[in-house]
Amino acid sequence: MKDNKTRDSIAQDILLNKDIMINFPKVELHRHLEGSMPIKNLFELSNKNKIGLPENLNDFQKEVQFPRDQGPDFLLFLSKFRNNYYKSEDDVYYITYESVKNLKNDGIYYIELRFSPEHYCLENNFDRQQITKLIIEAGNKAAKDTGIKIKYLVSFNRNKQTQEEMLSLYNQLKKLKLDDIVGIDLAGDELNFPPRLFTKFFSTVFHDGLYKMTIHAGEVTPPEQIWDAIFYLYASRIGHGVATIKDPELQLYLKDNGIYLEQCITSNKQTGAWVDEENHPLGYLFKKGVPVTMNSDDPVIQNTDLTDDYIKSVKYFDFSLDDLIRINLNALSGSFLSQDEKKAFASEYIKKVEDFKKKFMKR
Question: Does the reported pTM lie above 0.70?
Fold first, then answer.
């Protein structure tokens, strides 16, 4: 018994050690490229393109990141996103390459990275098709250079694009026939732009059968919006979905139908979506068997990373190593990969975990 307690204590210490846990292989389904750009590379672009931000790195960092000691503030959080860093296609390629390359530092094994073509094109009216191809080219080059597996989701912003504009962009992008794009995401203001406003767009996407859908819902809105995202927008996954905790019937439906929640502990605190990290729904829902995954959302903006959320899950929810492995296998199961890819990736993922255990948990 004493030896077991000692081993458990050692394992717990390892799971709370960030220097070790950054090496734990992770699968992530909810991370925005626009919120994942390394500070030092953004700083270089900012200075090169003279966009009016501080020319001292420390001051620049304070300007563009959410303060770690700041209480929840949704407007402050949103203010950190800027789309004027890029003055050329080379700028977009550069920041995408560096952002994806940096994923290795967070232990990413597989990621479905979402991006909004509009974000990069609005300032200079770049060609949306060209920018989309360029982002995927740069991301794939960085993934190959670092050994990361990657696919992409195209994100549409409900408070910046009308349904007709979404359809126009979607029809342009599907002509590219890019196999690396596996899904469509609806992001933006949930409160004022509920799912039912976008039924025509998502009905078109669903019936085309090219991509699956993930919908930001139930982050700052009630469970009804999650139901609407499923039944009106054909959601296979739900971004955030913290409101699921309030609806036991919804929990059962998600479980029975394999609809996964993409949950983000730190992000939810900073935006005010769920300020009590120690009692975040992720812990309860996971232990009840609801399909949940753990994600970072916008880690550079948040001044954090995915590993921080893993450590929080161990500290607050008493997650074990087996729990962390299971939540990553959940993510692979809920990914938009083909069934054959899911099976192959799951097998390789387990091997990566075994390598981690041999290296860091031999004691």
Answer: yes
